[in-house]
Amino acid sequence: VERGELRYEGKAKRVYATPDPQQYVVEYKDDATAFNGQKRDQILGKGSVNNAITSALYPHLERAGVPTHFIAQLSEREQLVRAVEIIPVEVVVRNVAAGSFSKRLGITEGTLLARPIVEYYYKSDVLGDPLINTDTAISMGWATDEDLSTIKALALKVNAFLTPYFLARDIRLIDFKLEFGKTHDGQIVLADEISPDTCRFWDAVSGERLDKDRFRRDLGNVEGAYQEMLARVTREQA
Ligand code: C5P
């Protein structure tokens, strides 16, 4: 697939136009940032690992009834996706207290939540993705009430599929972030990646962190953890 003009460049990915206006190419980079870009580095091989993990998971999610932008993996670092306009609302689903949730509410990391919590953040690098609620998104015109109902239901469906999928591979899915987009005909689809950059994965036996917290918290062996997650995701189950 021929790459056209650069449409968008984020911290971890570039999006290119293609000859078909309904399709984009996404390229995964090795660049890693944390704390709203204040901590920067490269994680060797991260782009290809995150592309491989996302490309393995999205077809499963489609089969589980979650419409997505994914069409095909094109190469080690590239995917072909449906062209969407990203809704500037990041959706976080939490099963276990960790990260900003633990910090904000003073709840010990690892505390099991009685039911999954869905949170919304405004996607804005300059503001550092502030926490919002659905009224904020509707009032600002970022999404409609109906869009947000669809998005919440899809986010919970993703969680309901991924939680047992990872548990079968000895991984606890602690929390994760999703992004949704709108196609030219107004369909809401899951977009962006699902990877150790955007999820917290804890080893079910040892509790070892196998995600970006190794980078954020300087725990070491970041590359090894990402490779281990790819091996678990693509592991054949009995
Ligand atoms: O930092 P926080 O605890 O709010 O993150 C919740 C989840 O969302 C984590 O899995 C984190 O990796 C992910 N996240 C993300 N991109 C952001 C913020 C959080 O992928 N901008």
Summarize this structure as a short list of keywords or feature phrases.
238 residues, alpha+beta, Phosphorylase Kinase, domain 1, D-amino Acid Aminotransferase, Chain A, domain 1, 2 domains, seven-stranded antiparallel sheet, 6 helices, 29% helix, globular, binds cytidine-5'-monophosphate, Phosphoribosylaminoimidazole-succinocarboxamide synthase, phosphoribosylaminoimidazolesuccinocarboxamide synthase activity, ATP binding, ATP-binding, SAICAR_synthetase
- Which stretches are poorly predicted, pLDDT < 50 over at least 5 residues? none
Q: What is the name of the CATH class of the largest domain?
A: Alpha Beta
Number of strands: 14
* Helix residue percentage: 25-40%
Task: Write out the distinct hetero groups bound to the structure.
Answer: cytidine-5'-monophosphate
Quickly give the CATH architecture of the largest domain: 2-Layer Sandwich
The quaternary structure here is single chain
Structural class determined from secondary elements: alpha+beta
* Shape verdict: globular
Question: How many structural domains are formed by the residues?
Answer: 2
